[in-house]
Amino acid sequence: MEIIKDINQIQWRPTAITIGKFDGVHIGHQKLLRKVLKAKEDDCTAVVFTFDRVPGNQAVTLQSFLTLEEEKQHFMQEFGMDCYVMFPFTKETAAMEPEQFVSKILVKTMRVKKLYVGSDFRFGKDRKGDVVLLAELAKRFGFTFEAIEKETYLDEVVSSSRVRDCVLNGKAEEITAMLNRPYLISGSVIHGRKLGRTIGIPTINVALPEGKIRPKSGVYCTRVRVDGKSFFGITNIGTKPTVQDEPVYGAETYLFDCNEDLYEKEVTIELLHFVREEKKFSSVEELSKQLEQDKQYGIAYVKGLEA
Hints:
- The protein is α/β, with parallel strands linked by helices.
- The protein has helices at residues 27-38, 69-79, 91-94, 98-109, 131-141, 160-168, 172-179, 195-198, 284-306; strands at 2-4, 15-19, 45-51, 83-87, 112-118, 144-148, 152-153, 156-157, 183-190, 204-207, 218-226, 229-238, 250-255, 266-277.
- The protein starts with a strand and ends with a helix.
């Protein structure tokens, strides 16, 4: 997949395009992507069009996204997209009238042949453009346009904001259903306090990346992928208040059936099921007993998955 930051630097063939923020690349986004991929049968280049930063004036905190930019690009590449456009969102872009955006950017430069967006899509100056206008412009400029209805889960519309709310509330199974995959935490294994080894439960530690929304603190059943292999385990996400005086947020995982040295390796943790809230125990001994219970719960959960 080609990453494109300047649409004027390449010679475009006829394109099938979908436009949006695509945070999380949830099942609604995937529905759009499948439409674009289908258009490759008509000799169209499959294009994801997004912006290099979030449009709008809403406050965006460092911990507000479901996917980092590199994760989003990875998912798009796995899906089979040909081009990923990161269009610069500038004052000039924000001031562009909807008709100008379509005629100058999509039609003249990118040679759009087919366009697919969500049914609530808005664009252009003051968000004046909508799917009604796009249908009119498609007729005028001679491209195919389709507004795609939202996907639903449990009779409610799937949206990035809904998935974020589930992440904040530890609803791992709902997240998996709406993303078609578990919520992921990726990073390098770092050295911790090695307390787990002293109580018979050695663990790996991963710092949570800046830029992603933090899952609800607590213990999860997880699957960890590393070097093409996967291991099940239990992961504590939070600040480990029993053993840490300073509130350093991270993910600490005990892996079932893994004796490998994983220090400094890149791992991906998949959140499968929320077990319990994080809490401060009165002693390390009390913590040790709880961790053993968590371990047995996790082993039973995995057996249920494999049954």
